[in-house]
Each structure stands twice: as structure tokens, then as C-alpha cells.
Automatic annotation (TrEMBL):
Occurrences of domain Circularly permuted ATP-grasp type (ranges): 104-484
Region (Disordered) residue spans: 1-27
Name the UniProt record assigns to this protein: Uncharacterized conserved protein, circularly permuted ATPgrasp superfamily
Domain DUF403: 533-832
PANTHER family, A to Z: BLR2978 PROTEIN, BLR5612 PROTEIN
InterPro entries for this protein: ATP-dep_Glu-Cys_Ligase-2, CP_ATPgrasp_2, DUF403
Pfam families reported for this sequence: Alpha-E, CP_ATPgrasp_2
Biased composition (Low complexity): 1-16
Amino acid sequence: MAGQAGQGNSQGSSQESKARPGQRRMAQWTRDYARLPGIPDEYIGQDGAPRAVWTRFFDAFAAMAPADVEKRFASADRHLREAGVTYRAPGETADRLWPLSHLPLIIDETDWQQLSAGIAQRAQLLEMVLRDLYGEGRLVTEGAIPAAAIAGSNEYLRAVCGVKPPGGRYLHLYAADVGRGPDGRWWVLGDRTQAPSGAGYALENRLVLSRAFSNLYKSMNVERVAPFFEAFRESLRAGADRDEPRIGLLTPGAFSETYFEHATLARYLGFLLVEGDDLAVSGDRIHIRTVAGLKRLDVLLRRVDSNFLDPLELDASSHLGVPGLIDVLRKNGVVVANMPGSGVLEARALLGFLPSLSRRFLGEDLSMPHIATWWCGQKSAREEVLDRLDDFAIEGAYSRSVPGFPGHGPVLAGELSPADRDRLKSAIADRGVDYVGQELVRLSTTPVWEDGRIAPRPFVLRVFAAATADGGWTILPGGFCRIAEQPDARAVSMGDGARSADVWVVSDKAVATSTLLPAADTVRIKRIAGVVPSRAADNLFWLGRYLERAEATLRLIRVLGTPTRDPVNGASSGPATSLPSVERIQRLLVTWGAATQASRANPAKVVAEALQNPEKFGSALSLLKSAQRTATSLRERLSPDAWQVITEMTERLALQVDDDDAVVSAAELTLQELASFAGLAQENMNRAAGWRFLEMGRRIERAINTARFARQFGYDEAGDEDLDVLLTLVDCQITYRSRYLVGPALAPVRDLAVLDPYNPRSVAFQVAALNEHIASLPSLKEHGLIERPQRLAVALQAMLTTAEAAALDIKALFALEQDLLNLADAIGLHYFPHGPNASRPEKLTGLA
């Protein structure tokens, strides 16, 4: 018994010793944490005590060793970098790495229920307001909303007045930016009804943080987000007029600030990612331009602002939309989410009218208030704002910017110079409809991790509501949280050095795991290739070509830069090739735009330029950057592993390498990574049209490069040195030596590089593969005749099959190279038309 008692004491001491380090860490983290005066905080409640949900989180968090915490933080950062999670700040041309806060924003279940109920009520109210504004118009005629408050917004579209939304809804996705008000309750800071962004980034935040802290995530019973996206997808599907609709996500393109999010949502929801040029109007329907002709599109989830959707009836300068889209809407031919013109509800001029509209439509007060707002288009409100100007934040009534003042966000009169203050007063007095005065508020705060402890920082939480098929609303349990770096921020934009955070809605009981995958017994088995928009096929084709061009350049670099080693002391004695071969390689690199003519006197300089000179369009670095830009437009179609390989290659070559041996080593490593990408594509991509176009790009470019190599180094008078270079460039040294017991001879080398159908690097092998791919693609003409790309490929294959190596002189090799270039052009012209008015022979597949 004594032994047992002693053992118990030992266990108790052990548990206590384990608890103490965690308690000490907790005390150290929170020692200097203090709620900002008069500002609500997520960690410290209104009573001055830590909220229970945060105490529960930090207790579990502090149980981890500091080294383990830092390891998990690094894992999250590494995932963001490797997955290429990026965004683009307004006005910038380069992508930034997504800045994820290492701590989530945590909300308990009771608090969340109140918040989500207020969001659902607000979404329903705004749907009813939109229905009236674009329908009967009774709110304006009966004076519930002044006409000027609506007409002043360029988001009020007369072109859609009287158009009933196909699918029955104006709003399919609504979002509200919220924060805690002075009393600790949630307040609405702004409405997002145009094309709410952030849900895709919220999804990525959840993926990263739940992986980095998987055990903590599970133990906190965090509500899952998959049911929200499933309900949203089902609502869009239910709005269409056929059982299995085709849904597209309309993006402005790869230069959009949030393009990564568009690709993430399209991939996660199974939608087609399309741009305006991918779509065409035919009859009463919208169709996608695909490599198999026009295919009907039933639902369009738009991320393009309303005014740019149709250059025929809206902004005529737009290149982002679809000519004729509004007319298709009138004819009930496509569901658009959200309905064009819905952005009118984002106008701050309407905020002051929403409480009375809630009582009118819903028969109840708004359960969640918003910032007190005075629209200066009304005399009484304008006079009050001018009388107490220093007590208000002045905002634009219809836009993020304040008319007449630079930048985005509010203008504080008390912080203006006397001249600017007078100018602001005059502008409000002269044209008050363009301005609102809002109550001065500072954003509530949440804990962030900084230098080994937590600190309060202002945040804005964007909460999403999705319409459901039964007419209600479902709320994303979490949201898109942006955190400012400045302690006294009044607004948060991802372009102002802010960071984002995952949002955990936690429960006291276990939550059910969920997935976007449907139950197995409800899925009908399919074995169809799917739809490949022409633009996506074009990008896949050129991705293959850019990567193959980079490989050819790297092979030249490796041959030119590989030195011959002195057998005695190992010292370098110059390039391994003879002077004529060196000249030919250098001339080819200059011709390809990889190096400058002035560098040809120094082979080492040519090698360095061809590898890393970003100013030369043909350098390996430039070609890989082109491949990366092209891959950016294919994010929804490339696996994370494939994207990671491209990113790592580009980043590695961007690091300056000065040592000659290091240059060759970098080239060899990049060649290995290119082989890795080819393996990923070969083993992991579904054998559909998208894979075929990637393969066609690689095959046509490899054939062109091999023909060029054969012409440069397998010419009629080529000696052993040049032929040896050719065998090295086409990676056939081992094959040649196994077949022939003599040194390089012209005819056998030419046969191996050009005509051998069994050599995966020969021209004949590439042309045979191209024939197979082209023959597998659908015909775009209905007359049944062989189409031009296939006609050229068949002719090339016949010529290569019947040719003899002895007859492959320089003239024949040059003609072969030109035929391959013509085939590449024919593929592009046939399958990749550009622009909304591009003409090509294609058949309309109707309901397919």
C-alpha cells in the first residue's frame, strides 16, 4: 500500500510538473495583453475576464512545447508557399504570398448563433429590397427610399429593370463585414451583395491551420465548413432548368486581385473556371467555347462587376463580359449569381433606411444593428453632419472612396488641414448625395501571435450567407477574417499590410465530420472526359511548349558548360566540346534569344546568360517564368504537386549563381525537376482533352527542337564531335552505343534522332503521339472530312515512316522543321480562337 501511495504521489507530481510549464507559458504570453481603452476585444470580455472559449484554446495551446509550436507555425507558412496561395493588392502587378495569422479567431457556439441569425435576417431583407427595386418599384413611389439614393449609384442598372431573375433569386451569396460594437454586440460594418469575395480564402485558411494544428482543431470541436459549400452548390444547381446543369465561375482572369480564390472555389465546387472570351451567346443561351465546339452553360457564378458583364448594354469598353448576356437573362436562358445590379445595395446611402424597411417587409426590427449613418442627400441629415463634422467619419455614398479625396476609406474631418476641411464642407453642401456621415468607431480587437506572445489587433470578420434550395439561408460557420497591423485601425484592406485568420466556431460537444462528396448510393457513375474551354486548352498547350523549350535550352547549357577534367589533377580545361561545336551551340542560344551576341567570346558568360538572364526571352529562367504565368491561369486544373514543381524551379533559377560549376548543377537539377513534372502529368492527370493538349504542346515543341538539333549538329559534313553533341542533346548516348559498336556515324545518328519510332525523343515518335492525340479529339466540322491539323500530322507521319536516314540532308531537315511549325500553328488556329468575335468552323452541341 505504501508503494502504491508513493506511486500515486509520483504521478501527481509528474502531472503537476507537466502542467506548470504550460501555465508558465500561458502567463508569459498573456502578461502584457490588455484590451484597448473603450474597444471590445475577443479574448477579454466586457467584464474584464478572459472569455471561456479562449481560455480553453490557450490551455490546449500552452500544453505544446515551444519548439513544437514553432514547427507547426513553419509548417503552415511552408504550405502557403508551396501551394502558391497568393493575392494581389489593389494597383499592384505582382502577387504577394498570402499572409495567414498563426492564431484563429475563435467564437463560441452561443455567440455565433446570435450572429448568424442576424446575418440570415439581413440577407432575406436585402433580397426583398432588390426584388422591389427591379420589380414593382413601390419603395421609391411610396417614399420609403428616396429615388436619388438609388439613382445615384452606378450599380443601379436600368437594363435589368423588370427582368425576373432566372432561378428566382437576386442574391445567391451575401456577405456582411462585422465587428463588435461599443456594447460588445456584433455590428454590421458593410454589406457585400455584388460578388462577395473571401469564401475561397476562408476555405484555404481552414485547410492550412487545421493541418498545422490537427489535434487542437479536433479537440476544440470546430464546426465544419463543407455543408455550407454543399448547400450553396445545390442551390445553384436547383436554380437551373435541367437536372445536371453545367455551372461556370466567371473570373476577370489571372490578373484579378483574387484570382487564386476563383481557382480554389472552382476546383472545390467542381465548377468550370471561365473568362468572358470563353463564352458566347447563341440563340437564347450562353455557351462555352470548348475544344469540342459550343457547350451550353446553365449557371454563371460571377466574380466580375455588373457593369462589365455585357458591353452591348452596359459598359461598352468592357472586355471581361459576354456580349448579349443581358438579353439572355431577359429570355430566362441562364442563371447568374448574383443577379446583375445587386451591387446597388452596397451603397452606404441606403443604410439609414434599412431599419424601417425591415419593419415593412419582415414585421420586425433588425436583430443586428449597423453603424449609425446619415445620408447627406437629405437636408436634415446633411445639416447635422455639417454642424458636427468632427464627430463623423465621412464616406462616399456609393463607392469606397470619398469624392474629391485620394485613397480608399473614410475621411476624418478632425485630421484634415483647414483648407481640406473647408473643401470637404463645401463639397457636402453642394452635392450631399455623394456623401454619408458615419458614427466614429474603432474596430474591435482579437489576439495575434507576435514575438512569442499575444497582442490585440483590430479585425473585420466577413460572414457569408448562401441561399438554399428551400428558399432559406445557410451561414458559413466561420468566415473571412482580416486583421490590421495598426492598433487603432478603422478599416482593414488586404492591400494595407493586413493578415488573414481562420475563424473557428467551436462547440462544447463533438461535431460531425463532413465532406463535399455525396453519399455513394446517390452518385450516378460517369466516364466522360468533361468540358475543356478553348482558353484552358490553349494554356495547357503552351505550358507544355514553354517547359519543353526550357528543357532544350537547359540541355544546350549543360553540354556547353560541362568542362573536361584533367585526368591528373581534376582541373577544368574548358568545354568538353570542340571549338566548332561550341560555336554552333552558342549561335543556337543566341538565335533562340537566350544569350547576347556580345557574349559569344566567352562560353561561360553565354551559359550564365542562357540560364538566368531575365532580360532574354529565351533564357531558361524567362521560359520557366512564362510557364509559371501560364500555369497561373490553370490553377484549378493543376495538382498542388505540379504547381509546386513549377514554382520551385522558377524560384531556384531566380537566385543568382556565379560559379561555373554551380550554373551547370542548377541546369541539371532543373532538368530533373522538369522530368518530375512530366511524370506527374503522365501518372496523375486524367486522360481527357486537357491532358492531351498538354502532351501535344510538349510533343510538338520537342519535335521542333529535335529537328533543329539534327539540322545544327547532324549536317552533311558533321564530324564525331558534332554527332556526339547531337546524341547528348537527344539523350541517346546509351541507346546508340548499345546498337552500334562504332563511334558516331552520320546516318545511324540521324535515324535515331529523327526517324526511329521506338525512340521517345525522336521526331517520328513525337509525330506519332501527335497523330494519336489529334485523332482522339472531337471533330469541329460536321462534313466528316479530315481536318487540317490531322491532315498535316498524318502527312508528316507518312513522310517520316517512309524516309531514309541517308536522304535527310540539311534541306530535308529544314523542311521538316517548317512542317512541324505549320502543324503547331494549325493546332492553335483550329482549337484556340481568341476574342468574342473569333470565327472558326464549329458545331453547336445544344444541350450537350
